[in-house]
Amino acid sequence: MTNPPRHLRQLGIDTQYVLLGFPLGIITIVLCLTGFAVGVGTAIIWVGLPLLAGALAMSRGFAHLERLRIGPVLRRQIPHPHYRSARSKGWVGKLFSPIADGQSWLDMVHGIFRFIPSTIAFCFVFTWWFGALSGLTYPLYDWAVPHTPDNMELPELLGFADNAATRITCYLIVGAFFAVTLVPVVRGAALVEALFARGLLSGVDELRRQVVEANAARDVAQEQKAAAVSAEATALRKLERDIHDGPQQRLVRLAMDLGRAEQQFASDPELARVTVAEALAQTRETLDELRALSRGIAPPILVDRGLQAALTALAGRCTVPVDLDAPVYERLDPAVESTAYFVVAEALTNVAKHSHASEVQVSVQRIATGLLVTVSDDGVGGASLAKGHGLAGLEDRVKAAGGVLAVDSAEGEGTCLTAALPL
Fold first, then answer.
1. Pick from 130, 82, 85, 125: which is nearest to 106 by CA?
2. Which of 70, 149, 169, 225 is the most buried (most CB within 10 A)?
């Protein structure tokens, strides 16, 4: 659905931009071209260098004015480009700094050649406004226009009779045509002039900023990739250590018990049965440890029932009382849910092992930018994200998901771990 007031307001902005751009174009081409010609022509005797620097500085001022003018036309704020600053702090360096600045030369080129699009746009805008206004108001002044036999009107040229009704009808149709097409024609003319100005006055700087942003995005992607690799390696080392310290040792003992039972069956069957019973107990404990390890890799409850149910089960297994505030949200991206779960799981593990806390609060909040996970306790503090601490691998996991991990853990004041995960 169109908005007539907005279109009329934009029509006024475009019209004044083009109509003012024509005289400005005349002024800038005279001043910039004269300053450039005189400066270059007298540069051989060194007098022209200050004149050329002054012309470039003047074109910079006109360029700044033009950036302010084209903002409303393009419906966006045009950023001020970066100009090269003088390397020398003296007046000589400041005077000649525009000569070594590429953007200043682009401003000069715009000042010299802007007259071309300004003139074309002015012709179209003036013609369309004149045609619309004069055609639609023709019935008001037809009586005042002399109609001599030697003066052929437009209706006569088209083969119609020369009378007041025919003239009024014909010129009203012409005026209606110009009025109907006024908005797109004026808009197109203003855009031609404004885009030409934008290309020279801020296009190079915008391209440079896009390159900088692309490089920054690439660096962030590389950091996330490195963090993902580091987190994966840390998780594998932890899993290997847990298997080595737990199920592997139990399986070794199980093999030894079964071997001893095999030898005891021939000499002492009763003792062999006791040994087999102990082996069965070892088997059950090994299965329990393997189930615990599998929950750490990919907890089924997280996949089946979501983050809130998985955190509730996690809080129930913690040896420290947990105050959980995790409302039920719609299912999130699996990577986000998994990262949030492991943040809470690792934090609760550290609380149980090292904090000596009496209570821990876990909060999961949905905010505008993503998911905010907070785990705080009233323990001894001293936690750190530095290498060698238990939270270093967790930071890599959060960074791999595109999030940020922060820890506030003063000595004796407890620990507050906060993870912000984007959605």
1. 82
2. 70
